[in-house]
Amino acid sequence: MTRPRRAFIGVIAAALVTTVSGCGLLSGEDSSTPAGTGVEKAKIRLGIIPIVDVAPVHIAIQKGYFRDEGVEVELKAIQGGAAGIPGLVNGELDVTFGNWVSFLAAQAKGATDLKLVADGYRGKPEMFLVMAMPGSPIKTAQDLVGKKVAVNTRGNVAELAVRAAVKAKGVDANTVQFTEMAFPDMQPALQRNDIDAALLVEPFITRAQQQINAFTVVDTMTGDASELPIGGYATSAKFAAGNPKTIDAFRRALVKAQRDAGERREVESVVTGYAKVDAAAASMLHLGSYPSSIDVGRLKGVVSLMKANGMLTGDVDPATMLLAP
């Protein structure tokens, strides 16, 4: 085993260590607030991306879970997790889906005071892929040196995944030219040769495989990284303080849907709508897992991984960001 590979596994192993003391169970089920009563705000503006990570939100809407809790969710499109944070700060959003890396980095910088509401998605193999066009000279991680690789936003979990994965192959991640691009724009950009490769997630992976025969250069969620925390839901400390019953209602409904999403058919039933995936493609999607609680130990591991890959210079304790029921 090479030294870079050993180093990578060591960091990931630390990232995935779960201890009893480091596990925050934020299902919201223990809240004393009666379901559907007394919410401070009846409509929640939620930042969201058209990817499989957020399928539970659409399940909860479809099944009336939010309505049963006395809240309506208004969906607001964002490009990535980092893009949702300014919306929380300026009051355009009440809650946003985003990746943990962006949330933790923003908190460490003191840019805002975020509170973590619920977990959303964890990684599995084949659902976080660096892909290229057929015929491309890029075949391995080593071939990414000096090449332009698209991620949906800079400084997020997509960039971290690429950096950690190429580092494991002995490649200096600083030699990769990262460029920011929305997920829907990546496939056309590959076809125009505007970029050399892209970090794709579902449903864009399956679409690129079917429509342009894109192939995998690097699977960033394999081995010890297969359960890496990807993203979840956050709000501002200000909104949380002023609307505790509203947040509890939102969380209770979402957690029900997160559990439903453990059944693949539930995810397939909604992605055909919001993600515009046909039924045949939906059956082929590579899915991660949908946790019903936030695991503080894993998030502390993400902090360690960010530091190991030069994406965090300060410090942040995820435990202080948890929004308890």
TrEMBL record:
This is NitT/TauT family transport system substrate-binding protein. It comes from the Bacteria. The lineage of its organism: Bacteria, Bacillati, Actinomycetota, Actinomycetes, Pseudonocardiales. Belongs to the bacterial solute-binding protein SsuA/TauA family. Its main location: periplasm. Keywords: Signal. It is found in: Periplasm. Residues 53-261 form the SsuA/THI5-like domain. Residues 1-22 form the signal peptide.
